[in-house]
Amino acid sequence: MLEIKYIADLVIAADNAGKKISEIVWQWECEQSGVLAESIWEKMQARLETIKISAYTGKQQQGKTFNGLVGGDAYRMAQTDQLLGGTVTRAVTYALSVSEVNADMGKIVACPTAGSCGIVPGALLATAELLKSDNDVIIKGLFTAAGIGTVIAKNASVAGAIGGCQAECGSAAAMAAGAVVEMMGGTPRQVSQAVALTLKNLLGLVCDPVAGLVEVPCVKRNGFAAAHALVGAQMALAEIESVIPADEVIEAMNQIGLALPSSLKETSEAGLAKTSTALSITARILK
Ligand code: SF4
Known about the structure:
This protein has one domain: 2-methylcitrate dehydratase PrpD. The protein has 13 helices and no strands. It has helices at 7-17, 21-33, 37-58, 73-78, 86-103, 119-131, 135-155, 160-163, 165-183, 188-200, 218-237, 246-259, 276-286. The longest helix is centred in the N-terminal third of the chain and has 22 residues, at 37-58. The relative contact order is 0.14. The mean pLDDT is 97. It binds iron/sulfur cluster (SF4).
C-alpha cells in the first residue's frame, strides 16, 4: 500500500519502482478508492474530453459573459502570436478559454478548483500539441497533476477562501508545471523541482474577486498562470533547482495562507475588489 503525504514521497516511490509519477498516482488512486485501474483511467479520459470541449469552444466565443465583465479574450489571444511563440500563446489561449467557459456557467473540470480551471488544461494541451502526443500522454499528465494537487490539499489548501489565490492559481500552476515536465520526459525529481519553482513564485497571491464573481481578476490570471507553469517546467527541465524543496514551499504557502487576513480570502472586502472601478461594477451588478 502506497503511503503518500509529500511530494518527496511521490518522487521516492517513482524512483524506487522505476516508474513515472503519473503511474504512482494512478496506482495510489486505485488503492485508495478500491476502483479498478481501467475504470479510473476511463474516468480521467472522460475528464479530458470535458477539458478539450471547454478549451476549444471558449476560444471561439467573442461575446461577454452575463455580467459583461469578461469574455472574448481567448478569441483575441488566439488571433495573435507576435511575441510569445506558439506553445505559450496556445497555453494562455486555452487557459483563458476554459476560464471564460467557467465564468459563463459552462461545464469545466475543476483542477483543482473552478476558479483555477484553465491553468492545467492550458499548459497540458499546449504541450501535447508541441509534442504531437496522443490522449494517453495528456491523461498521464492529468494523473501527475492530480497527485501534486492532492499533496498540496493534504498539507495546505487549494481553496482561495482558505489560502488566498496562491492556493488556487498557485497550486494549479504547480500541478501544471510538474505534469508538463513529465510529459516532456523529465525525471520525478525534475517534476518536484517544477512544483517548487512554480509555486514559490506565486506565494502571497491574494483572492480579491470583483463583486464576488469568479471573473475579475480570475480569468486573465488563469492565462498568466498557464504561462508561469511553462516557465517553471522549462527551468526544471534545464536542471535549475529550487533552494527551497517543494514540500517546504507548500508548507510556506500554508503559513502565508493562515497569516492572510480574511479580507483577502474570497470575501471581496479588500484588494482589487475595493477599487473604485470594482465598487462601481459591484453597485451596477447588485442594483
Ligand atoms: S482571485 Fe480568488 S476566486 Fe479568483 S481565481 Fe483566485 S482564488 Fe479563485
